[in-house]
Amino acid sequence: MSKEQSKPLSRRKFLTGAAAATAGAATLGFPMIAKAQGPIAMRWQSTWPSKDIFHEYALDYAKIVNDMTGGDLKIEVLPAGAVVPAFGLLDAVSKGTLDGGHGVLVYHYGKQNALALWGSGPGYGMDANMLLAWHHWGGGKELLAKLYQSIGANVVSFPYGPMATQPLGWFKKPITKAADMKGLKYRTVGISIDVFTAMGLAVNALPGGEIVPAMDRGLLDAAEFNNMSSDRLLGFADVSKVCMLQSFHQNAEQFEIMFNKTKYDALPAKLKAIIANAVSAASQEMSWKAIDRYSKDYVELQTKDKVKFYKTPDAILQEQLVVYDQVVDKKSADNPLFKEIVASQKAFAERTVKWDMDNNVNRRMAYNHYYGAKKPAAKKT
Q: Three-class SS of residue 72?
């Protein structure tokens, strides 16, 4: 070994050589290590009170995205009213006041009434999962984008989370006929406003967190919201001990995950793919959680809160369908997009509902075989 070879390298020469080696590696095709970028932060709001299970669903979706991106995208979800009122979510997300949000399309009914067709009504026999199938495979996705474009909304929307059939609602006494409902001050939203108004009720649209206080003060005689868990958490059993199950007014509703379009379009393709896959994952997780939680609270409402459940009479259900068709005919005449969506839903429903009814066995026989009348059940009026 020569004297020159054995001489130790100075720190400066070592660093210079290392830099040259790195540059050489890059020319040979080895990837450079880019400087790490900070996480993309998004501030969201739900349209639900913090104690509602619906806000929990919003937090669940955010966690799935945050986990799947490894922290590259961090969504923070605030409850209703933290930034804007529940019914103000669409405007806030469209303007960029919020980066996104969690709610339901029917809350935007005042902007474009056809948005309520994603769940406000009988779904032409479809349940919520089938209506989501229409959205993904029957043309609904394209029609929804056209709807938002028609009102200049700068948003990207992902309907998800099929809901169970919603009760007719909470009343002071059991409803045995349509005449029992006439004149009642009643809370609902979307197309149901028109349906129940035509059935003789005085309707007031309120966000979820305002319903029970309004009933407590006598501003409402009756109200519907959504499900056993939400209704129990929001305190419906404190102001009413009668709940009427089954209704066509919101038989096939879903939730909506919404992003500000400008912020969404700026995301890398990888994050967009994660967002889309997280929607599907959260949709399934939510529906599984709902089955568990709603059924538990159905029992708790009866055993602990002493609520009496009754099945809505068939005559009322039939009247809902008749009146709904009249409302839809009028809105279709006034709104070409409304008419186009109804035609698309009907075509999809005629095929899929027929298959569903013919193919899938009715579970009532199996339930009666194994459990009979031992478990708490809704009473017939």
A: coil
